[in-house]
Records
---
Amino acid sequence: MSILKRPRKPLSALLALCLCAACFPCPAFAAPADDFFSDAVFFGDSLTVGLADYAQKQRDAGTPCLGEAQFLAEIGYTLSDPYQPDGFEKHPLYRNRRQAPFKSLQRMEPGKVFVLLGTNDATDEVAALLDRYAALLSTLRETLPDARLIVQALPPIIAERQTESFSNAKLKEINAGLMALAHTHGADFLDLSGVVAKDGALDPALCSDAYLHLNEAAYALYAAQLSRFAAFCEAAAGPMQVTTVKRQVIISGRDLPSRKGRVLAHIPGGTALNAPSRSGAWYEVEYQAQSMYVHESALLISGSLPLTLTGNAVLHTAPDENSESAGEAAAGETLRILSGYYSPEWLLCADDGRYAYVRHALVQTQY
């Protein structure tokens, strides 16, 4: 049964106080990020419908919001729905047609796809949900081989509305699985769930229906963080990419960009590599002072950004204070931050092939 059945005319407590879109404008620094969103499509369910509504109100009022980003979303959309035939009543509308979203996305030709799906599947077993999500990412990658895929974390729900099959603890488990899936499918993971959270649940002041939908104040915060994410990605972009073997297995580096190429080396999982160029689905990498090719399916591809710590930091194995320590770093030390993961609370860093998470507030940002 679909969870996301957002009223067509939602009223929130804040809206009841006559607060409108103009009260929650996109942030002042949104304009520099416009180019980042010019080729972006936000693909999702009613949570994305809400973002689309918010962005349109801003634009109608003359306030730039998420550049020229497009939206492909429908209320109640699930992870199984994209595979329904054309004409399916729940397919997102594109140019007055309800067709499989993969066809719509091909016509939209995005350079970036922000995916926010899964809340309508969250009452299912976590493993089953993640299997469907993995299939979706595989299809998106086949459909849009050159697009940057950005998997978004599912936001929490109101604490009092939790059930045994639909709880914030379960959503947290799902998000951990989505982060892993993003890494194994060469996608970014964007976790903005904390932006609308209070004590691990959806902040009632940011909710429009006392359940799980967001109000305009929440979308203002969300859009602000999307703009900051764009600035972060642009700061991390450069001619050299940091490419990391994602699987904890031995990966073959070959002399040609083909599986027929001669194996030059066996690269351990977790190795940090530089990738100066790409040939189709193969990246040229440098390993042990030798150039070779590795297939993209074996890689986690990310830009990097050197950032300096403003204070002493405990590094963690996961973006969670309760996770195991991965070591310590001293104030003034420079960490290499990877752009494949972003949240307002945590950043992912790499050092000599080791990966750890550091508190966002402890680094001196350039964005």
---
Amino acid sequence: MRLLLIHPNTTMMASLAESLSYDGWEVIQASTLKKARERMEQGGIDFCLIHEGVPDGNVLDFHSQFEQQDYIPAIVLTEKPSVRQTVLFLEYGYDDVVPGDVDFMELKARMRARMRQRLQKAESTNPFIYDMGAFKFDLMRRLVQTETQSAQFTCKEFEVLLLLVQETGRVLDRDTISLALWQEPDTKDRTVDVYIRRIRDKLSALGLDELIETKWGAGYYFRPVDQARELWETLKAPVKPKRERP
């Protein structure tokens, strides 16, 4: 997940960026609103943390940048918060206003709360996002998302992953997977093993190592998740049975 951090104090910004990166954020730093606008125009921002003291513009007006894109949660850091100031920021559309010296743990908790709201809003309007409990599938963007992180898969990686989800709990051997997705048995290059390894590496980065298991000598299976069957109801497609090698 990409966080745009806008702060006039480069030392403080670096300290914040380091702390947030431990929580899985990819932090993009900008010390001015001009640099922040340039980065916003490129897209791909999931959250914004902005300090009111940026020197080259009005933070209130800057919120219009978010309105030009999909909903992006934004929190303002302020040195001397007042009721009037807080009301102004909230009325202009910012999600929260916190003191600049806020405890990191509190700041991160507030950010997680806003991200949960963002995901709930996206799910209410996007039929291609499925909540699996500890993580979510975004079928349009081929993403697996946790609360603070996401991993994107190639088309074929995502097909392999969804095939295993479709058959949750059932062991699929290499030939069955290969026939379903490549219309031929797995060959000596062990293509299926390569894709499973790539998928596992990406899931591991999200802390989801346990989702795909190996049954030695038999194949792979997706560990049962309560919501897995529900996910596949709208994507159901028969898996081709294993075919004998000629």
---
Amino acid sequence: MSVKNFITLFFFLIFVSCGNKHTETTWKTYTSQDKSYSVEIPSNFSLHSNEVGGWMAFQKISQNSSDAAFITIQPVTSGFASFDEDLSKNPKFQYSVYKESPNLKFAECSKGMWSAVKLGMLKDIDGSQYLIVLDAQNSKSTSEEIIQHIFDTMVDGVPDLSQGKQDSKESDLEKYSNPYLTIFYPKDWIKVNNPDQMSDVYIGAKDETVGFSIVRFDTDASLSQIVREAKSGADSNGMKTTYNKNQVVNGIECNKMVNEYDYQGIPIKTIAYTFKKGNTLYSIKFGTQKQYVDANIDLIEKIINSFEIK
């Protein structure tokens, strides 16, 4: 998804006017897919996209459309050029810059009782420049505090990687391991070895709201050929592919494909991660009712980022 398309989602949700009460912000650390940086994001935002090249996007978790907010971090070579373009691309929302310096540009849009901010900051990390953008309906002061914290905590590399893995292993996650791979999952989930002829294991919540299966087999087909075949199969079965891109997990290229369809009137969503190392294919697939998958995106990302091939 492009930055423009992601930000466009914001404008579908900002017609309602409502004041927001200030609450203490808690934070969660994320690492870019290429491990070029780590950053702290408010814990009430969920990871929407983490792509090769350092592009990340987050969406605020809220049932209230008037509380919509989005954060994007993208590598740039032309400073605020894309930010300036976004400020004027929608004639219904005219933003005015109210604060500006070489590394920040803050703008506000007001319509009667309603107002929103678009805040941008430039961060230099190891010779590369990143544009941080926050679109929100919070007060200017609250939004400025959030983006400043993101800017301040965005650092080179993965300084807390080993500690994070240790904490995960010792706290809420259990390790699954066989001669070929390892992956971590919540301790209270159930595990079923060889649930069918194709799968090594199925691991999921006891209430069956979310879970995943791992399929592994040898093949001479390339990753791109496997992905094309999977996409063709999804199309022929009436599924809608909403995401289909390659990314890197723990140094290994994989394809992430998201499909949606209805089963007896119930919306279903699957997220499949397909890896190819040597002649062996590894497929990790999450799938259940769409509402449960969407509610567990952060957990799914945490599980998949723990996956390692031996």
